[in-house]
Amino acid sequence: MLFEISEKAEKEISKYSDDYEIYLELEKVLQLDAQKNDLSFAKEEINIGIGIRIISENKLGFAYSSDINKIEDVAKKAYLNSKLNEADENFCFAQKTKLDNVKNIYDPKFENLDVSEASEFLESILETCVENNCEPTSGSFAASLENNLITNSNGVSAFNKFTDFQLLYLSMLKKW
């Protein structure tokens, strides 16, 4: 999906400049919050965004949108923003190079994680807290999957996929 969006963005950018960089992100988030013993908030969301940086007449311009249907506008705004900046012959984008593959940053368990499973996990933490003679005050569980793609006019194409899991529970120790 991100590669197809990048290709569309390249076509739009070519109307303004041959020197560009495209940043795309796609994030899926699952978040739960608890107050004392009760789940108070749960959400699942998908966020997507595109950032375009161009160099035109040695001037750097940038624009970003979280509306992926506005690629034409983002490309045009990046170009117009470049017109507002001063020229600098040192502006350039990264050259193509071999990138190291970072391992073990993606956990496929995220793909099957749902609100009920995350809620059960948060509740088990709450039970452990109570069993250890603590009084829970608040807590949260969050899991996310992020896909990032950076491409540029120098042939760079770097894709990254990773997951993130977070748990926070605050409690007070009861007096003995």
In short:
By secondary structure, this protein is an alpha+beta fold.
Overview of this structure, please?
This protein has helices spanning 2-13, 71-83, 115-131, and strands at 19-35, 38-56, 59-65, 134-152, 157-173. With 176 residues, the protein is an alpha+beta fold. It has a 5-stranded antiparallel sheet with strand order 3-2-1-4-5. β2 (38-56) and β3 form a beta hairpin. α1 (2-13) packs across α2. It is elongated and about 65 Å long.
Portion in helices = 10-25%
Number of helices: 3
Radius of gyration from CA coordinates? 22 Å
Mean pLDDT: 92
Shape, per Cα inertia axes: elongated
Fill in the keyword field for this structure:
176 residues, alpha+beta, five-stranded antiparallel β-sheet, 3 helices
How do the helices and strands line up, and which of them pair or pack?
Blueprint: H1 2-13, E1 19-35, E2 38-56, E3 59-65, H2 71-83, H3 115-131, E4 134-152, E5 157-173
Antiparallel strand pairs: 1-2, 1-4, 2-3, 4-5
Helix pairs in contact: 1-2
